[in-house]
Amino acid sequence: VKAQALRMAGLNWCWLPFALLFASPILQLRFVRETPAQWWWSFPAQIVASFVVDDVWFYAYHRYLHEHPKLYILYHKPHHVFTAPCAWTSHAVHPVEMLLQSIGTMAGPLLFAFSLPQLWIWMALRQLQGVLDHIGIDCPFDPLHYIPGVGGTVFHDDHHRVFTKNYASCFSVIDDLFGTRYHPEESELERVRGEKAAAASVL
């Protein structure tokens, strides 16, 4: 399974740049080439809003895949053969899941009427965020790291270890809202309580 996941990652890293290149003529039909000056003032806020829109969608379909075993095995399990992921494995995803991810990625730009240059900036930032989520450490140069409510790399690493917690890709506050946030200290407390209960039952 791990070899299959690595092949998926390799294929996705190879074909995605070409897919974007060949999609350019189609994108130009929907996204204007020029960016009016006033658009740039609101662009940083729109980028953050696009991350929120994308992550709400990511949380929804991601949790759905985890909670339905057949779908999980078919479309998401290859990504989870890596309990300690690295940058390369950020793209170790099934084509169906890649399609699902793309819906969230394009939702913000369509909703906020990005220009073509703004779309490319957004795509680059979204790819960077996905890679940084899988490198194993919280990078100080990650711009999202300083936004309140962002989980970071360790947050997503915990998802790869625990599986049924931390479904959001970026904003840990989403998991807080739905009660799926992983709290290591609570898990340790539950373990200690379990050991004490087991010891008491022996006595």
From TrEMBL:
<dbReference type="Pfam" id="PF04116">
    <property type="entry name" value="FA_hydroxylase"/>
</dbReference>
<dbReference type="GO" id="GO:0008610">
    <property type="term" value="P:lipid biosynthetic process"/>
</dbReference>
<protein>
    <recommendedName>
        <fullName>Fatty acid hydroxylase domain-containing protein</fullName>
    </recommendedName>
</protein>
<feature type="transmembrane region" description="Helical">
    <location>
        <begin position="6"/>
        <end position="27"/>
    </location>
</feature>
<keyword id="KW-1133">Transmembrane helix</keyword>
<dbReference type="InterPro" id="IPR006694">
    <property type="entry name" value="Fatty_acid_hydroxylase"/>
</dbReference>
<keyword id="KW-0472">Membrane</keyword>
<feature type="domain" description="Fatty acid hydroxylase">
    <location>
        <begin position="48"/>
        <end position="180"/>
    </location>
</feature>
<feature type="transmembrane region" description="Helical">
    <location>
        <begin position="39"/>
        <end position="60"/>
    </location>
</feature>
<dbReference type="InterPro" id="IPR050307">
    <property type="entry name" value="Sterol_Desaturase_Related"/>
</dbReference>
<dbReference type="GO" id="GO:0016020">
    <property type="term" value="C:membrane"/>
</dbReference>
<dbReference type="GO" id="GO:0016491">
    <property type="term" value="F:oxidoreductase activity"/>
</dbReference>
<feature type="transmembrane region" description="Helical">
    <location>
        <begin position="106"/>
        <end position="125"/>
    </location>
</feature>
<dbReference type="GO" id="GO:0005506">
    <property type="term" value="F:iron ion binding"/>
</dbReference>
<keyword id="KW-0812">Transmembrane</keyword>
